[in-house]
Amino acid sequence: MGETRTELSRLGEFGLIDRIQSKFSISNQSSLKGIGDDAAIIDAGDDSLLVSTDMLLEGIHFDLSYMPLQHLGYKAVAVNVSDIAAMNGKPEQIVIGLAISNRFSLEAVDALFEGIHAACQNYKVDLVGGDTSASASGLVISITVLGRVAKDQVVKRNGAMVNDIICVTGDLGAAYIGLQVLEREKQVFLSNPEMQPDIEKYEYLVGRQLKPEARMDIIHELRERGCVPTSMIDISDGLASELLHLGKQSNVGIKIFEDKVPIDHDTYETAIEFKMDPITCALNGGEDYELLFTIKPADYEKLKNHPDIHFIGHIHNDPTQHVLVTKQETVVPITAQGWKHFKGE
Ligand code: ADP
Ligand code: MG
Questions:
Q1: Is there a domain that residue 5 lies in?
Q2: Measured between alpha carbons, how far is 226 from 220 in angstroms, rounded to an integer?
């Protein structure tokens, strides 16, 4: 007794990362950017190399009772590619760390790698290595991705400037609602295995949870249109959380408008069915893997006709004010739950 014990839940994910970061400094000249962005930036002459890693754990990030292994393999690659996209880069290689228990058969591992293979082909990345281990219980898949970008094209989280326009791609909240549907059907199935899951009508939402795509298409289109965002991040934890990252790292204020936040019709209707507020799902849902970025006002003309880019607000000069203007025109602060896993939810 007498020794202090601090619960990790007191720091949360971001507090923990800040603490790790505070204990390390960078000593190699080639380490251009360390902890704190979607990927690290390594000097490689005219180009920058990008490195990022993301881990998926059974029971925390996925549940194999509704996540087919092919989809899991695909998703594990896609979420890593998404972090390279968020730096305006192109993914080139992955290495895979795999821990697997004897509960899995060869056929199961084949299915997992079928999905990984499909993603490698789709995103044009090479699997170049990894590590394989037995696991005491669940499946763990950890992927590290390497990417590349011309030095003058790299986009970080810290470049947003006053008056820049805030953009998001696709639509938000669908992956979260898709997860609610899957959880509900699992409970129905557990209580009565005779019942067939009723997910057809939720195909889009469930697909957004099980088969996310990294928005490399947007990265190519930004390039074609000659637009380099001033800042960018991918939406893995929810729009609110990512907006706060951009605001904090760029030292600027955020203002977005509720009626501009893209929410798909199915997401909206199903949120209501679950007695949830659709905008809350879009702000805090997470796992959409869309891109959030800012552009100079002068670049608006280049993007304004893009069918899948939405302009949701702008940057202002007070870094203490991150706000959402509701449909009723009330101004409310943007808050984020961040990562939930340490909070025992
Ligand atoms: P993302 O959501 O884009 O994957 P994270 O929120 O996971 O980013 O991580 C934010 C930053 O913190 C990244 O730069 C990441 O490399 C770094 N980071 C996260 N966990 C650790 C860790 N255990 N040790 C060192 N750096 C970490
Ligand atoms: Mg990211």
A1: no
A2: 10
One domain, residues 146 and 206: no
> Among 8, 14, 17, 75, which residue has the most ligand 1 atoms within 8 Å of its CB, making it the best to mutate?
17
Final residue belonging to a domain, choices 153, 178, 210? 153
- Pocket test residue of 31, 35, 339 for ligand 1, highest count of atoms within 8 A of CB: 35
Q: Which of 207, 122, 127 is nearest to 171 (CA)?
A: 207
Q: Determine contact, residues 303/295, Cβ cutoff 8 Å.
A: yes
**Atom 20 of ligand 1 has which residue's CA nearest to it?**
17
Whether 51 maps to a domain, the answer reads yes
Summarised one tens digit per residue, pLDDT across range 141-150 is: 999 999 999 9
Of 94, 119, 153, the position where a domain reaches its end is 153
Model-level pTM greater than 0.85? Answer: yes
Which DSSP category does 336 fall into?
-
Task: Give tens-digit pLDDT for 268-324.
Answer: 999 999 999 999 999 999 999 999 999 999 999 999 999 999 999 999 999 999 999
